[in-house]
Amino acid sequence: MHNRPPTIGEYLLRKLRHYDIEHIFGIPGDYVLRFYHLIEQDPIQHIGMTREDAAGYAADAYARLKGMGAACITYCVGGLSMVNAIAGAYAEKSPVVVISGAPGIKERAKDALLHHKVRDFHTQQRIYEQITVATALLDEPFSAFNEIDRVLDAVYRYKRPGYIELPRDMVDIHGSLHQRPSTGGHLSEPAVLDAAVDDALDFVNHSKHPVILAGVELHRFGYQNKLLKLVEEKRIPVVATLLGKSVMPEGHPLYLGVYEGAMGREDVRQFVEDSDCVIILGAFMTDVNLGIYTANLERGKSIYATSEKIAVRYRSYEEVMLDDFIDGLASPSLRKRKKPNVEWAKQPSEPFEVSPDAPLSVKRLFQHLNEFMIEGLTVIADAGDSLFGALDLRMRQRNDFISPAYYTSMGFAVPASVGAQLGRPDTRPVVIVGDGAFQMTGMELSTTARYGLNPIILVLNNHGYGTERHLHEGTFNDIRDWNYSRLPEVFGAGRGYHVRTEGEFDEAFKAALAEDEHFVLIEVELEKLDRSPALARLAERMSAKI
Question: pTM for the complete prediction?
Fold first, then answer.
């Protein structure tokens, strides 16, 4: 009796715990209720959200901070509602496991017209095949454990989502213990690794002005310390991509700032593009990362190393792991540089002077917010000017900036703060979200209140879709104004402030920091056409294309 193999549902939960998953985000439905019952008996805690896409955003943020996240929903009406969030997690390499309940195998036999079914019983899985690294239908007891291991191994290795479909009549079926080991080591081909490292070392050693461009994969794989070691031992200055912001402590003397083509600071852009050796580590060369392709990085002057590809100038190397390559770069064979002169990159550090009666502007708001960036805060910026304005915030510690900076799906930030705070309870989220994005998912503050979380939410109210206004104005950019600061009354929790001036914002944010028992929502009234300097530069280039 004691030697019986676990059921498929038990095994799946056991494996999730193996990856340090302590919370599952989702909404119940009849096809997944039996598995939900198992979750209730398990150390893993179910976090009930108000919408499936919000559950996906929460699991995504949880995964970014904790290493892997999980979401659990019912068939099709739940799974297809979550598609956009998981597409964003795929695009930005966030390892989320999606578990979907489904009609039982016996129910499918007669091709019955069961509720939630779309075209046929495989429709949902086929859709998820396009936005995950691996999918599995657990329809056979002798293969179920192997299939669970295969999907979780792929999610762990590639830092992208995976999909597991669990028919409701398979949850309590005992599986076969004949299984392959999960999350095995993935090794570099030694000869190819040596050739790639030798090629890179020769290139860097013969260069005069190398610079490292650090990207989001260093976050996802936990290689920040490898980066720090390379930068400090060899004295090579470093910039980050927008998606990789905070991968380096931003107060570090060799950190120059965010590089994003013409959207970013001109002196940083000039430094990177004048370099004769740009060492790109774990970065996606996306349009947003590259300032809508205003960046100018020549392949002949670059090393490009990600988890999927290693290239030194015009030569590519297969079967080389990113961590092995970074370790190889840090070898004694790479010469140590003289301390570079990068004082020009330090932003002026005069304290921000509050003009109490001055109306708030986006630029001044972020300068002011910078003064409050104490340790223990995790900044979560939604798409749009919430993200572009946040570029100038100085992250004084690592892993404290989250944003959908490539996929740029509006509505990410509020539900993401739920996942972020549960994944890292020692941090307090500061959510920066526009009024348009807030109206999409802001009611997820109900979940925030339910679980006693305490984010600080800044709703930047510029009366509509501000980023789009600067690309193409029209009445389609208008939205109805809400009384945002009164929403805590709706939820029966939290505190709300409505601020228009620098003095009011100063008082409200200080009060928010002092109030750590509940969430605090600060509605920031802004002029309709006000914008951050980065958005002004972006709009100028994009409006010509549109």
Answer: 0.91
